[in-house]
Amino acid sequence: MGGMNISEKILAHASEKEYVKPGEIVDAKVDMAMINEITGPLAIQIFKRIGLERVWDNQRIVLVLDHQVPADSVKSAELHKIMRMFAKEQNIPFLYDVGDGGICHQVMVEKGHVRPGELIVGADSHTCTYGALGAFATGIGSTEMAAVFATGKLWLRVPSTIRIDVTGVFGEFVTPKDLILYVIGEIGADGAIYKAIEFTGPTIRQMSISGRLTLCNMAVEMGAKTGIIEPDEKTIQYVRERTDKPFRIFRSDPDARYEKTMEFNVDNLEPMVACPHSVDNVKPVKDVEGVEIDQAFLGSCTNGRLEDLEVAARILKGRHVKKGVRMLVTPASSEVYLEALRSGLLEVFVRAGAYVCNPACGACFGGHMGLLAAGEVCISSSNRNFIGRMGSPEAKIYLASPATVAASAVVGKITDPRRFLEG
Amino acid sequence: MRVSGRAVIFGNNINTDVIIPSKYLTSLDPTELARHAMEGIDPNFPKKARDGVIIVAGKNFGCGSSREQAPIALKYAGVRCIIAESFARIFYRNAINIGLPILEAPGIRGEVDEGDIITAVLNEGLIINESKGKVIEAIKLPDFILDIIADGGLIEHLIKVMRGGQC
Ligand code: SF4
């Protein structure tokens, strides 16, 4: 029969089976379900149509307001209200309202709602982020979420898995974001549709949880169902600090099956940039250095964590954002915001002339704030550079690491952050 | 199960931000969403689709966000079926779950021109290009997915199953 990898083991466990193989369709039990105010109200409306009075389990649902907070229009205020009323009606304790949460994916991991070995679904495509903690997590739509609210179950096709084995040590100002952009450039925007991506190797073991979240976050940009990393001591410590709920550790068998294994070495990796208008249009920063920018955005569920703010602050400290360029900094959550406040990072940003926004999706979403006008160029630490993603369809978006975003903001043009290395 | 319509052609990697831009997501009204279907790539699309069309597209159709508003906008704009070389998985599931027929057919882009009359025979996984007199094979949907589509979507299906006491 051969061994199973971590994704297969979690899906087997969730569907009460001894063994599953890729291609098999399983009816799986969901451990946690997350909605935000963009996809949630529709799910709630559909759930009501089913005619059930109660959700399957009010302790397993998390509601987060993050895309348009605080409400920027009466319409979004109405959506927020639907979310609040549903939480109240169903007696769901996990509602993260304006001011007590942040970006849904950051909130999920930070507040201990993601545990290794669990099957987690979210009505948001970047739900795959949670695989960084050894859970199997994937995005679903609103109708499916309504069905999950009703039954606690979901059909899933067991994906085949691409293993990405990473060795080597990152150079200064080269980050996990540069690695994942490089990988996406190699695999392509449709190279992993319906598949899982498992990250392995010594570089991943060395990597912080924050970096691992960045990697798994962007798995969906290759079409993947999820990105996943086997839990280790760091994972267990991170989760233990946040929840006392029990969890199970699954690890890939030594003879686990993979559709293919790709090897990457980061020793000589350079800062990478995804150019307009697709995430797989990836080039080393030196090929695009000098492109003039109007906006620099540091934030999102990809790169809005403390570590990301820290690396940007190293470049911005004592310097100023180039005149004519605006820089937006959006911490991923209230917790990150508070830490950045305590450690003085926010002051560095404000002194540098950056605009520090409230913890939320911010400019990444292109529907709330920090929108781009026609012809404008933005360098962003987020995950998508589709046409119209951040505002006008005639704007251009370049994706890069927090270091590259900060360096570019200072120079006013796309810039290799290594130019700011001291000494 | 058969659906027919005039083909409208799209390329590879048509993403959900193009299908329905973020700024319209505050609406829960399907007809309002339909008015902006495909606005990011073809603002005339709602007019074209009004009388019922079949989208024929390249690879990775529907990539990007999990917004179910994307297939909803297309369905209510008049799209009767989407046939693509491949789909992004969340879009694929969403379309099925709202009862919008969808077929994966590798090589389809080479077989259909804009305006051809297309019939999709869902339960057999076949596509008939009536204008060219050709039959193209698609990947057949599993039976339980055909059941969901036949019932008009996952919720209708679920309600039926629950009433039948099987849930
Ligand atoms: S930060 Fe951007 S990618 Fe992440 S959940 Fe918010 S809108 Fe989506």
Unreliable stretches of chain A (pLDDT < 50, length at least 5) are none
CATH-defined topology of the largest domain in chain A: Aconitase, domain 3
Pattern of helices and strands of chain B: EHHHEHEHEEEEHH
- Proportion of helical residues of chain B: 25-40%
Distance between the termini of chain A: 56 Å
Could you name the CATH homologous superfamily of chain B?
A: Aconitase, domain 4
Task: Give the total of beta strands of chain B.
Answer: 7
* Biggest chain-to-chain interface with counts: A-B, 48 and 41 residues
- Beta-sheet strand percentage of chain B? 15-25%
Describe this structure in words.
- The complex is a heterodimer of chains A (423) and B (167).
- With 423 residues, chain A is of the alpha/beta class.
- Chain A has helices at residues 6-14, 40-50, 74-89, 104-110, 142-151, 176-187, 202-206, 209-217, 233-240, 285-288, 300-303, 306-316, 334-342, 345-351, 402-411; strands at 25-29, 32-36, 61-64, 95-96, 119-122, 136-139, 153-157, 161-167, 196-200, 226-228, 260-265, 272-274, 282-284, 295-298, 326-329, 355-356, 377-380, 396-399.
- The longest helix of chain A is centred in the first third of the chain and has 16 residues, at 74-89.
- Chain A is globular and about 60 Å long.
- The mean pLDDT of chain A is 96.
- In chain B, 31% of the residues lie in helices and 21% in strands.
- Chain B is α/β, with parallel strands linked by helices and 167 residues long.
- In chain B, strands 4-3-2-1-5-6-7 form a 7-stranded mixed beta sheet.
- In chain B, helix 6 packs across helix 7 (154-163).
- Bound molecules: iron/sulfur cluster.
- Iron/sulfur cluster binds at residues 67, 103-105, 124, 126, 300-301, 361, 364-365, 382-383 of chain A.
